[in-house]
Design a protein that fits this description.
Largest sheet: 8 strands, mixed
Mean pLDDT: 96
Bound molecules: nicotinamide-adenine-dinucleotide
GO molecular function: oxidoreductase activity
CATH superfamily: NAD(P)-binding Rossmann-like Domain
Keywords: Oxidoreductase
Low-confidence stretches: none
Number of domains: 1
Family: Belongs to the short-chain dehydrogenases/reductases (SDR) family.
Number of helices: 8
InterPro entries: NAD(P)-bd_dom_sf, SDR_fam
Pfam families: adh_short
């Protein structure tokens, strides 16, 4: 089975790659940095391929999709793990806020570009989605940027897309679930200043990337359901605003040219 893991060169993604490679799956690791990606695949066990690409821009996502198409006749599992928690507002070359681009638009576009190859998709989301607002008039450009809420907005967008992709793919038998991996000690959200210092201290008490990988791997290898959200291993019913979900979808489609 071929499993593609975005952002697989470090943190939870790396631990996911390691677990899957040890289990005998063919792993394709997507990394934005060639050297860091190559360093990761050198030490990973088993059959691991590297695809290099930056998921910040639509052009970067398209390059990744093309390369995946070239080397994978089928992708049994696509794990959208790459994620960003920025401390300040940065716009991408496409004019959208960076974490909105990587956390939400990149998975949205990859899902469309690869859908005929897919068996299953696992979206690494975050429990913080519940604090998000996903206002289509403001979120894409990161207007009113907030160091916590903006990230939460992007993760809410992931969750809003779940039932829509689940329905879209029903007949094709492609499934999609999302998971909050737990509070995990990785480089996510690292920053300077007093907040960075506090975070560094707090992270000592957080779980390891291997522990964060566990629920992601479990979902990657399971194929019983679709459209579900898991808080670690527990399924949480999600109440979604259908109308908002459709607007967020339409906007992602207009921005990326997919859908
Ligand atoms: N660490 C936690 O407590 C926690 C909690 C909830 C959700 N998550 C989610 O788990 C996922 C993995 O995060 P992590 O904690 O391992 O953090 P991390 O920072 O260690 O890993 C993030 C990965 O995403 C990659 N990435 C970022 N921007 C990219 C881009 N433009 N193109 C390609 N790759 C890019 C990074 O290179 C890295 O490999 C993220 O989606 C994150 O939001 C983490």
């Amino acid at each position: 089975m071929t499993v593609v893991v975005t952002g697989g060169n470090r943190g939870i993604g790396y631990a996911v790659c390691e677990r899957l490679a040890r289990a005998g799956e063919r792993v394709v690791l997507v990394s934005r940095d060639r050297e860091r990606g190559a360093a990761a695949i050198r030490v990973l066990p088993g059959e691991v391929d590297l695809v290099v690409g930056d998921l910040t821009t639509f052009a970067g996502v398209r390059i990744v999709a093309e390369e995946l198409r070239r080397i994978c006749p089928r992708i049994e599992v696509l794990v959208h793990n790459a994620g960003l928690w920025p401390s300040r507002r940065v716009l991408t070359a496409d004019g959208v806020e960076e974490s909105f681009a990587v956390n939400h638009l990149a998975p949205f576009l990859l899902n469309h570009l690869l859908e005929d190859l897919l068996g299953r998709v696992v979206q690494v989301s975050a429990g913080l989605y519940a604090k998000g607002k996903a206002d289509p008039a403001r979120t894409p450009q990161g207007l009113d940027f907030h160091p916590i809420r903006t990230y939460a907005d992007t993760k809410l967008c992931n969750v809003l897309m779940l039932p829509l992709f689940a329905r879209r793919w029903e007949d094709a038998g492609v499934t999609i679930d999302a998971v909050h991996p737990g509070v995990i000690r990785t480089g996510l959200g690292d920053r300077g200043g007093p907040v960075g210092l506090l975070l560094k201290v707090a992270k000592r008490f957080w779980l390891t990337p291997e522990q964060g990988a566990e629920p992601v791997v479990r979902l990657a290898l399971e194929d019983k359901g679709t459209g579900r959200f898991f808080n670690v291993n527990q399924e949480i019913p999600i109440e979604l605003d259908e109308e908002l979900a459709r607007r967020v979808w339409a906007q992602a489609a207009a921005l990326t040219g997919a859908g």
